[in-house]
Amino acid sequence: MSKKKTVLDIQKMKNDGEKITMLTCYDYPMARIMDACGIDMILVGDSAGVVIAGHDNTLPVSMEEMIYHTRAVMRANPKALVVSDMPFMSYQVDIAEARRNAGRFIKDAGAAAVKVEGGVNVAPVIRSLVDIDIPVVAHIGLTPQSIHRMGGFRVQGKRAEQAEKIMEDALAVEAAGAFALVLEGIPQSLARRITESVSIPTIGIGAGPHCDGQVLVIHDILGLCEKYSPKFVKRYADVREIMSGAVHAYIDDVKQGIFPGEEHSFN
Ligand code: KIV
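# 3-methyl-2-oxobutanoic acid complex -> structure
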């Protein structure tokens, strides 16, 4: 039986040139499936607010919701390294609150690490969490919690001075002790430069092929999210179609008196 993945295993994968796979997950059955497939890392993303709860963005997501999703994932006892996303306003107010909230993910929900969005601006928070032995994944580039500053979900770092700022963010979160770095929505050339400049693994989403690993939202690869279809998503299945077929068949069976049959009934 393979053992649970740790932050050391993830670093070793970068050192060995082995690509790191990460998917988002929010519940027990999906965690069982992706873990059995051998995914390296599971992100309990605050994208839950969009793909599960139906919000337009991640800003309304609460700590309680993220704890609920993390606990559901952890009940699958995954071998993958589980990272919980710290929701908007759970780490921005002050360091004591950031520590308390990050600690809940580890102590009450069972995650192995947390993720925070931001670079130079959140480096002190990252340092303060790492100092109390909470491993941190940083997230820079297109940071969905900054939607109002960015004016929408736009590729970041296309202009030279913006690219330099993102490079500074990468170096700052590495220096603060983050063990991995999500690069979202940036040009592939910038992602390559960052990946070559930092010693921690980079995990890309909409950042091209030169990162140490890749992450996608599970609902996107399964074709379960009709709201958005970003260019960077590859759809591996049309589960919506499969589900619709099953629900239609059930409705037809019940309407026609075909279900329940003798085999589904008690005597
Ligand atoms: O919440 C999320 O799903 C994320 C990924 C997009 C990296 O942060």
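# post-check
Residues 7-236 form a domain with the TIM Barrel fold (CATH 3.20.20.60).
The pocket of 3-methyl-2-oxobutanoic acid is lined by residues 24, 43, 45-47, 85, 139, 182, 184, 205, 215, 217 (CB under 6 Å).
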